[in-house]
TrEMBL record:
It is a multi-pass membrane protein. It is found in: Cell membrane. The keyword 4Fe-4S does not apply. The chain crosses the membrane at residues 21-41, 286-311, 331-357, 377-397. Pfam families: FtsX (PF02687), MacB_PCD (PF12704). The keyword Transmembrane applies. GO terms for cellular component: plasma membrane. This is FtsX-like permease family protein. Residues 21-239 form the MacB-like periplasmic core domain. Belongs to the ABC-4 integral membrane protein family. Residues 290-407 form the ABC3 transporter permease C-terminal domain.
Protein backbone atom coordinates (compact mmCIF):
# COMPACT_ATOMS: atom_id res chain seq x y z
CA UNK A 1 0.00 0.00 0.00
CA UNK A 2 1.20 3.51 -0.80
CA UNK A 3 1.92 5.32 2.47
CA UNK A 4 1.93 9.05 1.70
CA UNK A 5 2.94 10.00 5.25
CA UNK A 6 6.09 7.90 5.02
CA UNK A 7 7.03 9.53 1.72
CA UNK A 8 6.44 12.94 3.26
CA UNK A 9 8.86 12.02 6.04
CA UNK A 10 11.46 10.91 3.50
CA UNK A 11 11.19 14.14 1.53
CA UNK A 12 11.28 16.21 4.73
CA UNK A 13 14.50 14.47 5.72
CA UNK A 14 15.98 15.10 2.26
CA UNK A 15 14.98 18.78 2.35
CA UNK A 16 16.61 19.21 5.75
CA UNK A 17 19.86 17.68 4.48
CA UNK A 18 20.00 18.83 0.87
CA UNK A 19 23.78 18.99 0.52
CA UNK A 20 24.42 15.69 2.24
CA UNK A 21 21.76 13.90 0.18
CA UNK A 22 23.02 15.52 -3.03
CA UNK A 23 26.60 14.43 -2.42
CA UNK A 24 25.49 10.91 -1.54
CA UNK A 25 23.36 10.67 -4.67
CA UNK A 26 26.18 12.14 -6.74
CA UNK A 27 28.59 9.42 -5.61
CA UNK A 28 26.07 6.73 -6.61
CA UNK A 29 25.18 8.39 -9.92
CA UNK A 30 28.84 8.90 -10.81
CA UNK A 31 29.50 5.22 -10.16
CA UNK A 32 26.84 4.16 -12.66
CA UNK A 33 27.91 6.92 -15.07
CA UNK A 34 31.56 5.84 -15.02
CA UNK A 35 30.69 2.16 -15.40
CA UNK A 36 28.37 2.73 -18.37
CA UNK A 37 30.84 5.06 -20.12
CA UNK A 38 33.70 2.59 -19.60
CA UNK A 39 31.60 -0.32 -20.89
CA UNK A 40 30.54 1.82 -23.84
CA UNK A 41 34.13 2.54 -24.81
CA UNK A 42 34.98 -1.13 -24.31
CA UNK A 43 32.29 -2.01 -26.86
CA UNK A 44 33.52 0.82 -29.08
CA UNK A 45 36.99 -0.75 -29.11
CA UNK A 46 35.49 -4.11 -30.10
CA UNK A 47 33.49 -2.39 -32.86
CA UNK A 48 36.63 -0.62 -34.10
CA UNK A 49 38.68 -3.81 -34.24
CA UNK A 50 35.82 -5.63 -35.96
CA UNK A 51 35.61 -2.85 -38.54
CA UNK A 52 39.34 -3.16 -39.22
CA UNK A 53 38.98 -6.86 -39.93
CA UNK A 54 35.81 -6.42 -41.99
CA UNK A 55 37.79 -4.57 -44.66
CA UNK A 56 38.97 -8.03 -45.74
CA UNK A 57 37.72 -11.53 -44.99
CA UNK A 58 38.08 -12.18 -41.25
CA UNK A 59 39.53 -15.67 -41.79
CA UNK A 60 42.08 -14.54 -44.34
CA UNK A 61 45.61 -15.96 -44.56
CA UNK A 62 48.12 -13.84 -46.45
CA UNK A 63 51.59 -15.01 -47.56
CA UNK A 64 54.56 -12.97 -48.79
CA UNK A 65 58.29 -13.54 -49.02
CA UNK A 66 61.50 -11.55 -48.51
CA UNK A 67 65.21 -12.34 -48.29
CA UNK A 68 66.74 -15.18 -46.29
CA UNK A 69 68.62 -14.21 -43.15
CA UNK A 70 70.43 -17.47 -42.42
CA UNK A 71 72.74 -19.90 -44.24
CA UNK A 72 71.08 -23.21 -45.07
CA UNK A 73 72.36 -26.28 -46.91
CA UNK A 74 75.33 -24.41 -48.34
CA UNK A 75 73.23 -21.44 -49.55
CA UNK A 76 74.22 -18.02 -48.29
CA UNK A 77 71.79 -15.60 -46.61
CA UNK A 78 70.45 -12.66 -48.63
CA UNK A 79 68.61 -14.72 -51.27
CA UNK A 80 65.21 -13.33 -52.25
CA UNK A 81 62.57 -16.05 -52.06
CA UNK A 82 60.23 -15.98 -55.07
CA UNK A 83 57.04 -18.03 -54.97
CA UNK A 84 55.60 -19.52 -58.16
CA UNK A 85 52.55 -21.17 -59.69
CA UNK A 86 53.77 -24.61 -58.57
CA UNK A 87 53.58 -23.54 -54.93
CA UNK A 88 50.05 -22.25 -55.39
CA UNK A 89 48.85 -25.33 -57.30
CA UNK A 90 50.33 -27.70 -54.69
CA UNK A 91 48.68 -25.93 -51.76
CA UNK A 92 45.26 -25.54 -53.40
CA UNK A 93 45.29 -29.21 -54.44
CA UNK A 94 46.46 -30.64 -51.11
CA UNK A 95 44.18 -28.45 -48.97
CA UNK A 96 41.26 -28.24 -51.38
CA UNK A 97 38.70 -29.38 -48.77
CA UNK A 98 39.99 -27.04 -46.06
CA UNK A 99 40.09 -23.92 -48.23
CA UNK A 100 37.07 -21.74 -49.03
CA UNK A 101 38.60 -19.15 -51.37
CA UNK A 102 42.10 -18.95 -52.82
CA UNK A 103 44.12 -16.74 -55.11
CA UNK A 104 47.70 -16.07 -56.10
CA UNK A 105 48.65 -12.47 -56.83
CA UNK A 106 51.03 -10.99 -59.39
CA UNK A 107 51.73 -7.28 -58.93
CA UNK A 108 52.62 -4.52 -61.38
CA UNK A 109 53.21 -1.56 -59.10
CA UNK A 110 52.71 2.02 -60.21
CA UNK A 111 51.33 1.03 -63.58
CA UNK A 112 50.34 3.93 -65.82
CA UNK A 113 46.68 3.65 -66.82
CA UNK A 114 45.23 5.69 -69.70
CA UNK A 115 41.77 6.37 -71.01
CA UNK A 116 41.63 8.87 -73.84
CA UNK A 117 43.24 12.04 -72.42
CA UNK A 118 42.94 10.94 -68.80
CA UNK A 119 45.69 9.01 -67.01
CA UNK A 120 46.81 7.98 -63.55
CA UNK A 121 49.19 5.71 -61.64
CA UNK A 122 47.43 2.77 -60.04
CA UNK A 123 48.40 -0.68 -58.85
CA UNK A 124 47.77 -3.43 -61.40
CA UNK A 125 47.26 -6.87 -59.93
CA UNK A 126 46.80 -10.24 -61.55
CA UNK A 127 44.44 -12.34 -59.43
CA UNK A 128 42.03 -15.27 -59.51
CA UNK A 129 38.21 -14.93 -59.43
CA UNK A 130 38.05 -15.84 -55.71
CA UNK A 131 39.98 -12.68 -54.85
CA UNK A 132 36.74 -10.68 -54.88
CA UNK A 133 35.51 -12.61 -51.83
CA UNK A 134 38.86 -12.61 -50.03
CA UNK A 135 38.93 -8.79 -50.27
CA UNK A 136 35.19 -8.42 -49.51
CA UNK A 137 34.71 -6.38 -52.66
CA UNK A 138 31.28 -5.43 -53.92
CA UNK A 139 30.50 -5.23 -57.61
CA UNK A 140 28.84 -1.93 -58.48
CA UNK A 141 28.69 -2.53 -62.23
CA UNK A 142 29.36 -5.46 -64.52
CA UNK A 143 31.17 -8.54 -63.19
CA UNK A 144 34.42 -9.65 -61.60
CA UNK A 145 36.95 -11.91 -63.30
CA UNK A 146 35.93 -15.51 -63.96
CA UNK A 147 37.73 -18.81 -64.61
CA UNK A 148 37.12 -18.55 -68.33
CA UNK A 149 39.17 -15.34 -68.31
CA UNK A 150 42.02 -17.28 -66.68
CA UNK A 151 41.84 -20.22 -69.07
CA UNK A 152 41.62 -18.08 -72.20
CA UNK A 153 44.13 -15.48 -70.92
CA UNK A 154 41.63 -12.72 -71.70
CA UNK A 155 42.70 -9.10 -71.65
CA UNK A 156 39.92 -7.90 -69.36
CA UNK A 157 40.13 -5.62 -66.35
CA UNK A 158 38.01 -4.77 -63.30
CA UNK A 159 38.40 -1.19 -62.09
CA UNK A 160 37.39 0.51 -58.83
CA UNK A 161 34.86 3.28 -58.27
CA UNK A 162 37.85 5.55 -57.52
CA UNK A 163 39.41 4.83 -60.92
CA UNK A 164 36.03 5.26 -62.60
CA UNK A 165 35.45 8.67 -61.00
CA UNK A 166 38.95 9.91 -61.82
CA UNK A 167 39.28 8.67 -65.40
CA UNK A 168 35.73 8.30 -66.71
CA UNK A 169 33.89 11.06 -64.84
CA UNK A 170 30.23 10.56 -65.77
CA UNK A 171 30.89 8.13 -68.63
CA UNK A 172 29.87 4.46 -68.37
CA UNK A 173 33.14 2.47 -68.32
CA UNK A 174 31.75 -1.01 -69.05
CA UNK A 175 33.14 -2.49 -72.32
CA UNK A 176 35.41 0.52 -72.79
CA UNK A 177 39.08 -0.02 -73.67
CA UNK A 178 41.58 0.93 -70.98
CA UNK A 179 45.34 1.01 -71.55
CA UNK A 180 47.46 -0.61 -68.83
CA UNK A 181 51.11 0.34 -69.38
CA UNK A 182 50.29 0.80 -73.06
CA UNK A 183 48.38 -2.49 -73.52
CA UNK A 184 44.64 -2.51 -74.27
CA UNK A 185 42.26 -4.19 -71.82
CA UNK A 186 38.46 -4.28 -71.92
CA UNK A 187 36.64 -3.16 -68.76
CA UNK A 188 34.17 -5.81 -67.53
CA UNK A 189 33.31 -4.50 -64.07
CA UNK A 190 33.53 -1.79 -61.40
CA UNK A 191 34.03 -2.72 -57.74
CA UNK A 192 33.94 -0.91 -54.40
CA UNK A 193 35.89 -1.84 -51.27
CA UNK A 194 35.02 -1.31 -47.58
CA UNK A 195 38.64 -0.30 -47.02
CA UNK A 196 38.03 2.98 -48.86
CA UNK A 197 40.17 4.79 -51.42
CA UNK A 198 43.42 3.20 -50.30
CA UNK A 199 42.03 -0.24 -51.20
CA UNK A 200 40.46 1.10 -54.39
CA UNK A 201 43.73 2.36 -55.83
CA UNK A 202 44.03 -0.90 -57.79
CA UNK A 203 42.70 -2.59 -60.91
CA UNK A 204 42.52 -6.36 -61.42
CA UNK A 205 43.29 -8.55 -64.42
CA UNK A 206 43.43 -12.36 -64.73
CA UNK A 207 46.71 -13.61 -63.23
CA UNK A 208 47.45 -15.73 -66.28
CA UNK A 209 47.14 -12.62 -68.45
CA UNK A 210 49.26 -10.52 -66.09
CA UNK A 211 52.06 -13.09 -66.03
CA UNK A 212 52.10 -13.39 -69.82
CA UNK A 213 51.62 -9.75 -70.80
CA UNK A 214 53.91 -8.23 -68.15
CA UNK A 215 56.70 -10.84 -68.40
CA UNK A 216 55.93 -12.47 -65.08
CA UNK A 217 56.74 -16.01 -66.11
CA UNK A 218 55.38 -18.31 -63.40
CA UNK A 219 56.23 -15.93 -60.53
CA UNK A 220 53.69 -14.79 -57.94
CA UNK A 221 54.11 -12.08 -55.29
CA UNK A 222 51.55 -13.26 -52.76
CA UNK A 223 49.27 -16.13 -51.86
CA UNK A 224 45.92 -15.46 -50.24
CA UNK A 225 43.45 -17.96 -48.74
CA UNK A 226 40.40 -18.20 -46.56
CA UNK A 227 39.45 -21.29 -44.59
CA UNK A 228 36.15 -23.12 -44.61
CA UNK A 229 33.78 -22.01 -41.79
CA UNK A 230 34.00 -23.98 -38.54
CA UNK A 231 31.51 -24.63 -35.74
CA UNK A 232 32.94 -21.92 -33.51
CA UNK A 233 35.64 -19.28 -33.31
CA UNK A 234 38.12 -21.47 -31.39
CA UNK A 235 37.96 -24.29 -33.93
CA UNK A 236 38.37 -21.80 -36.76
CA UNK A 237 41.50 -20.39 -35.10
CA UNK A 238 42.93 -23.90 -34.59
CA UNK A 239 42.29 -24.88 -38.22
CA UNK A 240 43.81 -21.68 -39.61
CA UNK A 241 46.86 -21.96 -37.32
CA UNK A 242 47.42 -25.56 -38.40
CA UNK A 243 47.20 -24.64 -42.09
CA UNK A 244 49.45 -21.60 -41.62
CA UNK A 245 52.15 -23.68 -39.92
CA UNK A 246 52.07 -26.39 -42.59
CA UNK A 247 52.05 -23.80 -45.37
CA UNK A 248 55.13 -22.07 -43.94
CA UNK A 249 56.96 -25.38 -43.50
CA UNK A 250 56.23 -26.40 -47.10
CA UNK A 251 57.44 -23.10 -48.57
CA UNK A 252 60.64 -23.16 -46.52
CA UNK A 253 61.40 -26.71 -47.61
CA UNK A 254 60.59 -26.00 -51.26
CA UNK A 255 62.78 -22.86 -51.40
CA UNK A 256 65.58 -24.26 -49.21
CA UNK A 257 65.06 -21.88 -46.30
CA UNK A 258 66.26 -22.67 -42.77
CA UNK A 259 63.34 -23.74 -40.49
CA UNK A 260 64.28 -21.05 -37.96
CA UNK A 261 64.68 -18.30 -40.56
CA UNK A 262 61.86 -15.88 -39.69
CA UNK A 263 62.72 -13.29 -42.31
CA UNK A 264 62.19 -15.18 -45.57
CA UNK A 265 58.59 -16.46 -45.44
CA UNK A 266 55.83 -14.47 -43.75
CA UNK A 267 52.33 -15.76 -43.03
CA UNK A 268 49.68 -13.38 -41.70
CA UNK A 269 46.74 -15.16 -40.08
CA UNK A 270 43.85 -12.72 -39.63
CA UNK A 271 41.94 -15.04 -37.28
CA UNK A 272 44.92 -15.42 -34.98
CA UNK A 273 45.40 -11.65 -34.95
CA UNK A 274 41.68 -11.17 -34.34
CA UNK A 275 41.82 -13.53 -31.37
CA UNK A 276 44.70 -11.55 -29.86
CA UNK A 277 42.87 -8.25 -30.29
CA UNK A 278 39.58 -9.59 -28.93
CA UNK A 279 41.35 -11.15 -25.95
CA UNK A 280 43.01 -7.80 -25.26
CA UNK A 281 39.68 -5.97 -25.54
CA UNK A 282 37.98 -8.49 -23.24
CA UNK A 283 40.73 -7.96 -20.65
CA UNK A 284 40.31 -4.20 -20.96
CA UNK A 285 36.54 -4.58 -20.47
CA UNK A 286 37.15 -6.67 -17.35
CA UNK A 287 39.37 -3.88 -16.05
CA UNK A 288 36.61 -1.36 -16.89
CA UNK A 289 34.10 -3.52 -14.97
CA UNK A 290 36.49 -3.63 -12.01
CA UNK A 291 36.97 0.15 -11.96
CA UNK A 292 33.24 0.81 -12.40
CA UNK A 293 32.17 -1.65 -9.72
CA UNK A 294 34.73 -0.26 -7.28
CA UNK A 295 33.27 3.20 -7.92
CA UNK A 296 29.75 1.90 -7.32
CA UNK A 297 30.83 0.17 -4.11
CA UNK A 298 32.28 3.45 -2.93
CA UNK A 299 28.90 5.06 -3.58
CA UNK A 300 27.02 2.30 -1.75
CA UNK A 301 29.38 2.60 1.22
CA UNK A 302 28.61 6.31 1.18
CA UNK A 303 24.88 5.54 1.32
CA UNK A 304 25.45 3.21 4.26
CA UNK A 305 27.45 5.84 6.14
CA UNK A 306 24.81 8.48 5.50
CA UNK A 307 22.08 6.17 6.77
CA UNK A 308 24.11 5.56 9.93
CA UNK A 309 24.29 9.33 10.43
CA UNK A 310 20.56 9.66 9.78
CA UNK A 311 19.80 6.94 12.33
CA UNK A 312 22.03 8.68 14.87
CA UNK A 313 20.30 12.03 14.29
CA UNK A 314 16.83 10.48 14.57
CA UNK A 315 17.54 8.36 17.64
CA UNK A 316 15.15 10.30 19.89
CA UNK A 317 12.47 10.25 17.20
CA UNK A 318 12.85 6.48 16.83
CA UNK A 319 12.69 6.07 20.65
CA UNK A 320 9.43 8.04 20.76
CA UNK A 321 7.97 5.91 17.96
CA UNK A 322 8.88 2.74 19.84
CA UNK A 323 7.49 4.13 23.09
CA UNK A 324 4.22 4.81 21.28
CA UNK A 325 4.09 1.21 20.11
CA UNK A 326 5.92 1.19 16.77
CA UNK A 327 7.11 -2.29 15.78
CA UNK A 328 10.71 -2.95 14.59
CA UNK A 329 9.81 -3.76 10.98
CA UNK A 330 8.00 -0.49 10.21
CA UNK A 331 11.07 1.36 11.55
CA UNK A 332 13.35 -0.78 9.40
CA UNK A 333 11.06 -0.14 6.41
CA UNK A 334 11.18 3.62 6.98
CA UNK A 335 14.99 3.75 6.97
CA UNK A 336 15.28 1.18 4.20
CA UNK A 337 12.83 3.01 1.96
CA UNK A 338 14.86 6.21 2.17
CA UNK A 339 18.07 4.32 1.35
CA UNK A 340 16.51 2.58 -1.66
CA UNK A 341 14.93 5.82 -2.89
CA UNK A 342 18.23 7.74 -2.84
CA UNK A 343 20.08 4.85 -4.48
CA UNK A 344 17.44 4.21 -7.15
CA UNK A 345 16.93 7.86 -8.03
CA UNK A 346 20.67 8.50 -8.28
CA UNK A 347 21.33 5.24 -10.13
CA UNK A 348 18.69 5.87 -12.79
CA UNK A 349 19.86 9.46 -13.10
CA UNK A 350 23.42 8.31 -13.79
CA UNK A 351 22.15 5.66 -16.21
CA UNK A 352 19.96 8.05 -18.23
CA UNK A 353 22.69 10.69 -18.44
CA UNK A 354 25.40 8.23 -19.50
CA UNK A 355 23.19 6.40 -22.03
CA UNK A 356 22.04 9.72 -23.47
CA UNK A 357 25.63 10.93 -23.76
CA UNK A 358 26.69 7.74 -25.58
CA UNK A 359 23.66 7.93 -27.86
CA UNK A 360 24.35 11.57 -28.70
CA UNK A 361 28.14 11.53 -29.07
CA UNK A 362 28.90 7.87 -29.79
CA UNK A 363 28.15 7.85 -33.56
CA UNK A 364 30.27 11.00 -34.03
CA UNK A 365 33.41 9.69 -32.32
CA UNK A 366 36.16 9.11 -34.87
CA UNK A 367 39.17 7.64 -33.10
CA UNK A 368 41.46 4.84 -34.28
CA UNK A 369 40.08 1.45 -33.17
CA UNK A 370 37.05 3.01 -31.47
CA UNK A 371 33.77 3.01 -33.40
CA UNK A 372 30.34 4.01 -32.05
CA UNK A 373 30.79 3.41 -28.29
CA UNK A 374 27.58 1.89 -26.93
CA UNK A 375 26.35 -0.34 -24.13
CA UNK A 376 23.70 -3.02 -23.98
CA UNK A 377 20.64 -1.44 -22.32
CA UNK A 378 19.69 -4.69 -20.62
CA UNK A 379 23.15 -4.96 -19.05
CA UNK A 380 22.96 -1.34 -17.90
CA UNK A 381 19.49 -1.86 -16.37
CA UNK A 382 20.63 -5.02 -14.63
CA UNK A 383 23.55 -3.09 -13.17
CA UNK A 384 21.19 -0.43 -11.80
CA UNK A 385 18.92 -3.03 -10.18
CA UNK A 386 21.95 -4.70 -8.63
CA UNK A 387 22.94 -1.25 -7.36
CA UNK A 388 19.46 -0.74 -5.86
CA UNK A 389 19.73 -4.11 -4.14
CA UNK A 390 23.15 -3.13 -2.83
CA UNK A 391 21.63 0.15 -1.61
CA UNK A 392 18.93 -1.82 0.20
CA UNK A 393 21.57 -3.98 1.86
CA UNK A 394 23.57 -0.88 2.74
CA UNK A 395 20.50 0.68 4.37
CA UNK A 396 19.39 -2.50 6.14
CA UNK A 397 22.12 -2.60 8.76
CA UNK A 398 21.61 0.98 9.96
CA UNK A 399 17.85 0.30 9.92
CA UNK A 400 18.29 -2.90 11.91
CA UNK A 401 20.42 -0.99 14.42
CA UNK A 402 17.71 1.62 14.71
CA UNK A 403 15.03 -1.02 15.31
CA UNK A 404 17.02 -2.55 18.17
CA UNK A 405 17.37 0.72 20.11
CA UNK A 406 15.55 0.57 23.42
CA UNK A 407 13.08 3.41 23.91
CA UNK A 408 14.55 4.49 27.27
CA UNK A 409 18.08 4.67 25.77
CA UNK A 410 16.82 6.54 22.72
CA UNK A 411 14.95 9.12 24.81
CA UNK A 412 18.09 9.87 26.79
CA UNK A 413 20.06 10.58 23.58
CA UNK A 414 21.13 14.18 23.06
Amino acid sequence: MFDIERWQEIFDTIRKNKLRTFLTGLSVASGIFILVILLGFGQGMRNGIQAEFEADATNRIWVWTQVTTKEHKGLNPGRFVVMNNENYDYLTTKYNKELEYKSSIFRIRGGLINYKKESGNYGIQGVSPDYQFIENQKMEEGRFLNYRDLEEVNKVVVISTKVKNELFKEEDPIDKILQLSGINFKIVGVYSDEGGEREENRVFVPITTAQRVFNGGNRVANLSFTMQPEENFEKAVQASNKFSAELETYLKQFHTVAPDDNGAVHVFNALDEAKRYYTLVDNIKLFFWFVGICTIIAGVVGVSNIMLIIVKERTREIGIRKALGAKPWPIIGMILQESVFVTAFSGFGGLIFSMGLLELLGPNIEVDYIVNPSVNFQVAMTTVFVLIFAGAVAGFFPAWRAARIKPIVALRDE
